[in-house]
Structures are given as C-alpha cells and as structure tokens.
Amino acid sequence: MSDVTEPEIVEELALLPLDAWHRARGGRMVPFAGYEMPVQYEGIMAEHQWTRESAGLFDVSHMGQLFLSGEGLDTALETLIPADVASVPVNGQKYSLLLGENGGILDDLMFTRWDGDNEVDPGVPGIYMVVNGACKWDDIGHLREFLPDEISLSHLDEQALLALQGPKAVDALARVVPGVETLVFMRGGWFDWNGTRLWISRSGYTGEDGFEISVTGDMAQELADALTAQAEVKPIGLGARDSLRLEADLPLYGHDLDTETTPVMAALNFAVASKRRREEANFPGAARILAERESGSIQRRVGLIVEGRQPVREGALVLDAAGNEVGRVTSGGFAPTVQKPITMAYVPTALAEIGTRLTLSQRGKIHHGEVVAMPFVPHRYVRAGAAQ
C-alpha cells in the first residue's frame, strides 16, 4: 500500500458577473450550483421580511438561459416536456418539466416564445428557456441529444439574470424602465434601457409580484446600481430566496424534485393540464404519469406545519403510528411570515389529506406536524384581468 496521499480535487467555483458588487455590499458568499453566491447581507429573516413588504433584488445569474430555434421546434420540444408548447403566444411564458423516460423529473424550467424581434438572434423566432443552475449542463446535453439536428440551441452564457421581487417591485422598476407596469404575470417584453435592450418578464420564484430581467453581463452592475438606488430595493441573498419559495409552495430541484419523482407525486398536475397533450401522450413517461393522474401515485408531496418552534430540515423521516419510516422531509425551515416551522415532505398518498397528523424524526428527536393546504402564504401575482 502506498503511503502517498492523493491530492484532494477541489472544484473551482465560477463567479457571477456581480461577484465584486455583492462582496462590496457585505454579501456572505457560499458555494451553490457551482458558483460563489451571496447567501445573505443583513440576515435571512430581515431580508425575507423586506421582500414581503417592499422589493428585494436577487442575483440568479447561475441559472441557465437558452435559446432554441428551427423548423418544427414546437413539435420537437413537446416530445421532451408535457407542456402545450404550440399554444404559447409570443412573449407568453409557461412553467414545465424536462422528463425522463420513467416519467421522473430531470429539471423544472420556464420557457417563453420569442418572435424575430429579439436581441439574441435578430430575425429568428424561437423559444427562450431558463433552467436550473445546478443541472443546466445536463439539460443542455439532454436537449442536444434528443432534439433533431435542425433545431439550434444557444447557451446565453454572457447574459446575467436578476430578479426583483416584492409588492413594491413594480414601482421601483417602472422608474428605471418605464413601461414594465403594463406586463402581467407570465408575460414578458423587450425594453430599452441606457442604450441596451432588456428582456423582462413578470415572474419569479418567491410567490410575490415581481420581475426577472435578462441583461448582458457587462451591464449587470449598472442595472443593479440603478435598482438599488430606489428606496424600495435592497439586495437579497439565497437564504431568503429559499424561505420565500418554501412559504409559496415552490419546489426546489434537487431537493423537492428529482429523477425518481413524477409530476403527480410532486403535486404538479397543472404541468400536465393540456387535454391535447394528454390525448397525444407522446411526452416521456406519459403512460405512467397519466395512470397516476387517474388512480393516484404511491406518494405525494405535502406541506406540514410543525408544532413548537424548532425547524425540521431536509432529510428528517416521516413515521407512521408504529414508528416505521413512510416518508421523508425534502425542505424545511422556520417560516418568517407564518411564524411557525414548515416543511415539504413526501408521504404515502393515503396520509396526504389535509388535517392528517404525522410524526417526524430529526436526528432521533420526535416532532409532530399536520398536513395543511399550500401555499403556506398566498401568492400575490398580478394576473391578466385582475384589478390593478
């Protein structure tokens, strides 16, 4: 046996376009999805509350921004995701899932139809897609493998992505980029700003009203400065983004969703809502997913409010009355808005009814929780037709 110790291989983390900007503002940087990212500035609780009451600026430039184009794109994409791609209008946005052959979720994503009036590939219509940072390279590989050769895929790796979230986000952003107030939830558009064009959609992952802004990396700092110069806006880190999305019943890939989880198990039936797509049944795992829609899945994602004040975290066990493991917590923490510990967990469908009491075990300590309706905090999206 050799006494030579093998050197430890340390993965080099990528830097966000705003890395120095975050550090200058006191951002505490941590590894996340292959990047150094700010987890907090003032503190998670304060940042969470600020976003709920005013407007928080999140740097989500680690996400993968893609542009797909080519003849037959809608039909080709529908062989990989369950969404009705063909019905999405220009500048319309939709949530969907990249599925494996077993019906498991490879990633969740947002996509938007662009016409030829786009800055990425002027004159060429296509689909703009945002995928999760932790699996964007796998997604790109999967799309390139399974889409026909005539479909072009560009990774927009020079684009930054900022999310401005909260009830006062529209007021702040409209001063910087006039016209954005005309957008409604899940709609986007191109806007001129300081000699460049921004893609802005009224969307986000906090449950609050807000916007996501795609901007070239070299202009990201100037835009971030302009936004945080508004009295309503503060920079917010990953910690508050996680607590906000948990309260809003927004699952996180790699934690609440994975390759063994189907849309029905994940309580994402709305992602397979199109009658045409269900009748065609030509998306991956369609037979299994449609059978689960009809008869139910073995397990289902639920929300729990936990008794006491101590949070129950990912990995805690869900036990039946006899003390046997029947499920697992996938996300959990103390919810600042709810003022109670909350969790997402997968449990047998028979135990998924609202009001069911469940026992949780975290490092040998027993906790008690109750299945409740999600979201824990109501969404505040500005939808089309709603009173402004």
UniProtKB/TrEMBL annotation:
GO biological process: glycine catabolic process
Cited SUPFAM superfamilies: Aminomethyltransferase beta-barrel domain (SSF101790), Folate-binding domain (SSF103025)
One Pfam assignment: GCV_T
Domain Aminomethyltransferase C-terminal: 300-377
Keyword presence, Transferase: yes
Family named by the database record: Belongs to the GcvT family.
The protein, known as: aminomethyltransferase
Species of the source: Sphingomonas turrisvirgatae
